[in-house]
Specification:
With 240 residues, the protein is α+β, with helices and mostly antiparallel strands. The protein is built from six helices and seven strands; from the N terminus they run ααβαββαββααββ. Helices cover 55% and strands 20% of the residues. It has a five-stranded mixed beta sheet. The protein has a two-stranded antiparallel ribbon with strand order 1-3. The longest helix is centred in the N-terminal third of the chain and has 55 residues. It binds adenosine-5'-triphosphate (ATP) and magnesium ion. The site of magnesium ion has 4 residues, from α4.
């Protein structure tokens, strides 16, 4: 790598770090906004079912019916709008493209390398050759994997090993991508909560990371589950 390439890389890294810094600062705000949106959606749900009840059970006159339908339609459109803000329905679905999962892992590790170095975390890659390939929204899946990696890094405050595994599933064309850490693990009772929106054990967490990662993986014909014991947590992504 020559000097100008190195300079460009350093500049890009600095820009990425600044972006991350900005994101860190807006996190509490995003968290509060998400909680409000969540509650407003719930209340709108009550209004909507009331309107539906009146329409279907109370036999309103033609004029009343028109008014209640107006209420129902507008509530529905606000709920839909808020759903977008919650990340429940991503506004833009990107095109799916043939993606090499190993290359995706390389891009993610490239991004977290410096942070892992600083935190005394060893990054290990155990990647199947040839790389599994799949039709997915590459950048969305990449951000999901990045989210899982950041959780792993945050779980290993005292250092540890972060491992990426890709493995073909012999029996069919599906394959696994595993992100494994040597952090303290997740208590059994908490395992079922971690993918629900707003569940967080971190002072500054939004609790939306795993929820949105799961949404992305599901929308890309995949599944995600977590296996954890003290000293080892595995996030297993299966793509079909
Ligand atoms: N690798 C892991 N090891 C231990 N606990 C984890 C791990 N990944 C997730 N968790 C637990 O699951 C919770 C939810 O994770 P999620 O990514 O959804 O939100 P968060 O990390 O708390 O907040 P944010 O992603 O907004 O920073 C975490 O707060 C943590 O308790
Ligand atoms: Mg997180």
């Amino acid at each position: 790598m020559d000097n100008s390439e190195l300079a460009t890389l350093q500049k890009n890294l600095q820009a990425a770090q600044e972006e991350l810094g900005k994101l860190e600062r807006i996190k509490p705000l995003a968290s509060a906004a998400a909680a409000v949106v969540h509650d407003v959606r719930n209340s709108l749900g009550v209004i909507q079912s009331t309107a539906q009840f009146v329409l279907s059970k109370l036999k309103p006159s033609a004029k009343e019916k028109e008014a209640w339908e107006l209420v129902e339609r507008n509530v529905e459109s606000i709920r839909h709008l808020l759903k977008g803000y919650l990340g429940l329905a991503r506004q833009t679905e990107n095109a799916k493209e043939p993606t090499s999962i190993n290359e995706l892992v390389e891009r993610v590790t490239h991004f977290i390398d410096v942070q892992c170095g600083k935190n005394n975390i060893k990054v290990v890659k155990d990647l199947a050759e040839p790389s599994p390939r799949v039709m997915v929204e590459s950048s969305a899946v990449e951000s999901a994997v990045l989210n899982l990696s950041i959780n792993a890094i945050e779980a290993m405050a005292g250092g540890g090993t972060l491992k990426f595994i890709t493995e073909a599933n012999g029996s069919d064309r599906s394959f696994h991508l595993v992100i494994e850490d040597t952090g303290p693990g997740i208590p059994k009772d908490d395992l079922e909560k971690i993918f629900t929106p707003f569940y967080t054990t971190k002072e500054k967490g939004t609790g939306m990371g795993l929820y949105s990662a799961k949404a992305i993986v599901t929308q890309n014909n995949g599944r995600i589950h977590c296996e954890s014991e003290p000293g080892r947590t595995r996030m297993v992504l299966t793509f079909f």
